[in-house]
Design a protein that fits this description.
The structure holds three protein chains of three kinds. Chain A is of the alpha/beta class. Chain A has helices at residues 40-47, 70-75, 92-96, 98-102, 107-120, 125-128, 138-150, 168-185, 196-202, 220-225, 230-235, 241-248, 251-254, 274-284, 304-308, and strands at residues 2-11, 14-24, 29-33, 55-60, 63-64, 77-81, 156-160, 188-193, 205-210, 213-218, 267-269, 288-292, 298-303. Chain A has a six-stranded mixed sheet with strand order 6-7-8-3-9-10, with helices on both faces. In chain A, strands 2-1-4-5 form a four-stranded antiparallel sheet, covered by helices on one side. In chain A, helix 5 (107-120) crosses helix 7 (138-150). Chain B has two domains: 11-164, no CATH class; 173-381, MetI-like (MetI-like fold, Orthogonal Bundle). In chain B, strands 2-1-3 form a three-stranded antiparallel sheet. The chains are: A alpha/beta, B mainly alpha, C mainly alpha. Chains in contact: A-B, A-C, B-C.
Chain lengths: 314, 388, 250
């Protein structure tokens, strides 16, 4: 659990972070979003003390971070940055084993852990262990970056725009993989990004920052439905917000049991998002869809009225 | 981004404290009755008394104090103080001369002690530090030296008669002029010739990868051989040519003299020249070349109107490196009878006459610095869009 | 021959050939008397015999080696100090001086050292040390400052101490650039040390100076040959060292 109490950071006469309070629960993925220079990276780096805060308190599992030795603190927090920061003079395996080696794990245990992580992140040991970072693609390098951060099995992971420099398709894949990993590992993750779609897709909780302050925080859906002000609304996509909301809800949450009426020809999978369902309706010129499961068996139906959540009496 | 509150500048106080220690602790000047006898050293307080010596500590201390709470205005004050101190050095030498040198002894001379050199060095470092802290341009840096040079010129012309360096110069002012002229001529000829040959070689090598490897291989090899050795190795074949080929002998080609010196200088100069020309021509953004071709410029037009102008600053950088290097190497060439300022150095070393060594070494140093500054400024000028 | 030895020989072949030639020339110069006799038919003596060539070579190497070692320690040390937080104040001055100082011709530096330090071997070492510092400082600074800030950030973020970052990340990454500076420095030092013969240090410059003074071209060629071979040996060894580092990572 990470807690920030009224934390402020000043650089000279400028205030980069202005009295923010925040609580990230154990196993939660919290995304800090905002325009560049809003203080989100500074906030992240104050947690592992790469930047020292000027006022307020930051607690890790109830302990002020200042009580920890700087290096010991960082060794128990995973850290991933946009440009990977892999050591160019070390091969992949050695890069991944960095923190365990700093922690003086026995050699065999490090070796085992590196192998485990490489298979976890889809990097076959045989073809990647001895490669140097410059021989990797952007996506592979960032996988190594994530593996390195996870090496000593930290409870907490700090990620600073980890997928910001990747092409859209690779970014998509890695986001999916991160979601997958998180559903298995349940780390406490603070994730900085300026890509709202990424944040909406990954976060359990969204924290919107502007000019060093937290403007709004909450579950992604709550923010989409009820943005605090115009800034948050425009950051969330302005009029396109509805689509983003639709993309966060699954068809099975809205579908109704099959009615005795004729079964609609157009079909959609129960795990698809409402946004995808809407697209199917548009394409098929249909206002009603049959919802199917993995075996192509109809399990329910979804009407346009139901999809957009219109009240029954309207 | 991060903006630091003004923190104490620790560099200037350190420089000034070392300067004070040198001023009070080291030999400032030495006095010798004639050229042969080694001089007697005098510390600052032995010349002007403790009151004077300690009084002179005030301006450096003021610089240190000003730098401890630096603001642009305070640093500018410190800069003025440093320039004034540099101007005071010759005046102080004049004072020492009138106090220490017996006017009855026309041969008596004033030598410069280690304190003097250390002070000069530290003050110049302070000047560099202030220039970069105040973000002054190169030009302003040189302009700052003008009053200092004026002060020196005034002092040398009027009251520094007994300065040993000046006496050495007086004794051979004609020789000195010839040596400077020879030195410059050799450097000029070597740089000029290597510029022509170097650019031609670079152009020739550009389309052929094999030629590039071979060419750079030979040039690298040449550059690796120490100058003294290369001069030496050229002696034998040239001596033979001079003895056996008449028209070459008539030109003055002999084992010893300007011929091997010039050849070796050109050989050394070729590597930086070819390398920079090559890198300059290859380094032009391919997108620019592509768009020039796309607009319908001919190959020739692309080369003359696009590639060459864009490459010029880097080529000039090569000329700068070459010139500075040649100025130093020409000094070595004096050993094989090529003339130039190196002659004074080796003559002085042979006779253990240190002021004669200085008479050779100082102008070489100045020449190198001036050539470096001038060509550096020129290359900056030629950057597209003018000086930045 | 074991494969390791074969690979080593292949890698170090060129420097070894130059080294072989150098040793051969220092030991067997007298065998070439006929050639030098032809070059210098009128002289009484055509082989420099005042001191053994091997001794001269040893002295040359000693002076260059001591000066270069000290210059490496001091130069890399200075560059490391001014790139640490506490020494950063001194960075602009040191950087500017290191690049400006390379404008000074080595001969002038050598000549200026003599009035201050006197004649003999010590002033040569000091002059070589001072001058050899500049390229090392300059390259070390370039190497240390050229490291991707992200690598630095990641290293600290992973919990490496400043010392670990310096030893395991910064110095290994800067090593190729530093090594290139050392190469420049040593190359200049070998050449400048030869000039030391004019200020009373005895080394491979001796035969050249003596040949010039006595008008004996054979002496000059012998000295020049040995200095040239020495420079080529050392330079090609550095070439291998640098090439080898370049292949491992970029």
């Amino acid at each position: 659990m990470i807690e920030l109490f009224d934390v402020t950071k000043r650089f000279g006469s400028e205030t980069a972070v202005d009295g923010i309070s925040l609580r990230v629960e154990r196993g939660e993925l919290c995304a800090l979003v905002g325009t560049s220079g809003c203080g989100k990276s500074t906030t992240l780096r104050m947690i592992n003390r790469l930047i020292e805060h000027s006022a307020g308190e930051i607690h890790l599992d109830g302990q002020p971070v200042r009580n920890f030795d700087e290096q010991a603190l960082r060794r128990r927090i995973g850290y991933v940055i946009q440009s990977t920061g892999l050591f160019p003079h070390w091969p992949v395996a050695r890069n991944i084993g960095l923190v365990p080696r700093l922690l003086k794990w026995p050699r065999a245990r490090i070796q085992m852990r590196v192998e485990e992580l490489m298979s976890l992140l889809g990097l076959p040991m045989a073809s990647f262990a001895d490669k140097y970072p410059h021989q990797l693609s952007g996506g592979q390098a960032q996988r190594v970056g994530v593996a390195r951060a996870l090496a000593a099995d930290p409870d907490i992971l700090l990620m600073d725009e980890p997928f910001g420099a990747l092409d859209p398709i690779t970014r998509d894949t890695l986001q999916e993989e991160l979601r997958d990993l998180q559903s298995r590992l349940h780390k406490t993750i603070v994730f900085v990004t300026h890509d709202m779609d990424e944040a909406l897709r990954l976060a359990d909780r969204l924290v919107v920052m502007d000019a060093g302050r937290i403007v709004q925080q909450g579950a992604p859906l709550d923010l989409l439905r009820d943005p605090a002000d115009d800034f948050v609304a425009s950051l969330l996509g302005g009029d396109d917000r509805g689509f983003k909301e639709a993309a966060l809800t699954r068809v099975e949450e809205r579908m109704l049991p099959l009615s005795p009426r004729l079964i609609a020809r157009a079909r959609v999978h129960r795990e698809a998002t409402l946004r995808q369902a809407l697209a199917v309706m548009f394409r098929e010129h249909a206002d009603r869809l049959t919802v199917i499961d993995d075996e192509d068996m109809p399990v329910g139906e979804l009407s346009l009225r139901r999809l957009v959540g219109a009240r029954p009496h309207e | 981004m991060r903006r630091d509150a003004p923190r104490p500048n620790r560099v200037l106080p350190l420089l000034m404290l070392v300067a004070l220690a040198a001023w009070l602790g080291l030999v400032a000047v030495s006095v010798a009755p004639n050229r042969i006898v080694p001089g007697t050293g005098f510390r600052a307080h032995e010349v002007v008394g403790w009151a004077g010596a300690l009084g002179a500590c005030l301006p450096p201390l003021a610089v240190a104090v000003l730098a401890w709470h630096p603001s642009p205005a305070r640093l500018r004050h410190a800069l003025v103080l440093i320039v004034l101190l540099l101007m005071a050095l010759p005046a102080w030498l004049g004072l020492a001369a009138t106090r220490l040198v017996d006017p009855e002894l026309p041969q008596a001379r004033l030598g410069l002690g280690s304190a003097f050199w250390v002070l000069l060095f530290l003050l110049l470092l302070a000047l560099i530090e202030l220039r970069s802290r105040l973000a002054l341009s190169r030009l302003v840096g040189w302009v700052l030296l003008v009053p200092v040079l004026l002060a020196w010129w005034l002092a040398l012309a009027s009251w520094l008669e007994p300065l040993a360096l000046l006496q050495e110069y007086r004794a051979r002012s004609d020789q000195f002029a010839t040596a400077v002229w020879h030195h410059l001529a050799l450097v000029g000829a070597a740089v000029g010739a290597s510029l022509v040959i170097g650019v031609a070689l670079a152009l020739l090598m550009r389309p052929h990868a094999g030629l590039q490897r071979a060419g750079f291989g030979v040039l690298n090899f040449l550059q690796t051989i120490p100058s003294l050795a290369l001069f030496g190795l050229l002696l034998a074949p040239l001596a033979w040519l001079g003895a056996n080929v008449e028209w070459l002998a008539a030109l003055g080609v002999r084992g010893i003299g300007w011929a091997p010196a010039l050849l070796a200088l050109i050989g050394y100069s070729l590597l930086p020249m070819v390398r920079n020309t090559f890198v300059a021509l290859e380094g032009v953004d391919p997108a620019v070349i592509e768009s020039a071709r796309g607009m319908g410029m001919s190959r020739r037009q692309v080369f003359l109107q696009v590639r060459l102008p864009l490459a010029l600053p880097v080529i000039l950088e090569g000329v700068r490196i070459t010139t500075v290097q040649a100025i130093g190497l020409t000094a070595v060439a004096a050993l094989i009878g090529a003339g130039g300022l190196g002659g004074f150095i080796f003559q002085g070393l042979g006779q253990a006459a240190m002021d004669l060594v200085l008479l050779g070494a100082l102008p070489i140093l100045v020449m190198a610095l001036v050539a470096d500054a001038l060509l550096g400024a020129l290359s900056e000028r030629l950057h597209p869009g003018g000086a930045r | 021959m074991t494969p390791g030895l074969a690979a080593g020989l292949r890698r170090w072949g060129v420097p070894l050939v130059w080294l072989g030639l150098l040793l051969l020339a220092s030991l067997g110069m007298a065998e070439l008397e006929a050639v030098f006799r032809w070059l210098e038919p009128d002289s009484r003596e055509v082989i420099y015999r005042r001191t053994e060539f091997l001794t001269l070579l040893g002295r040359h190497l000693l002076v260059v080696g001591v000066a270069s070692l000290l210059a490496i320690v001091a130069g890399v040390g200075a560059a490391v100090l001014v790139t640490r937080p506490f020494g950063r104040d001194f960075l602009p001055l040191v950087a500017q001086f290191a690049s400006m100082g390379q404008t000074f011709p080595p001969v002038a530096v050598l000549a200026l050292a003599v009035p201050v330090l006197g004649f003999g071997t010590l002033p040569i070492i000091v002059a070589l040390l001072l001058y050899g510092l500049l390229p090392i400082v300059r390259n070390s600074l370039a190497g240390l400052q050229g490291i991707d800030p992200a690598v630095h950030e990641a290293a600290r973020g992973m919990g490496m101490s400043r010392g670990q970052v310096l030893r395991q990340v910064e110095l290994p990454l800067a090593a190729p650039v530093i090594l290139a500076g050392v190469r420049t420095s040593v190359t200049i030092n070998i050449a400048t040390a030869a000039l030391g013969a004019t200020v009373g240090a005895s080394n491979l410059g001796d035969p050249i100076i003596s040949g010039i003074v006595n008008g004996n071209t054979a002496y000059i060629v012998q000295g020049a040959l040995l200095i040239g071979l020495l420079a080529l040996t050392v330079d090609s060894a550095f070439e291998r060292l640098l090439g080898w580092r370049r292949i491992r990572f970029r």
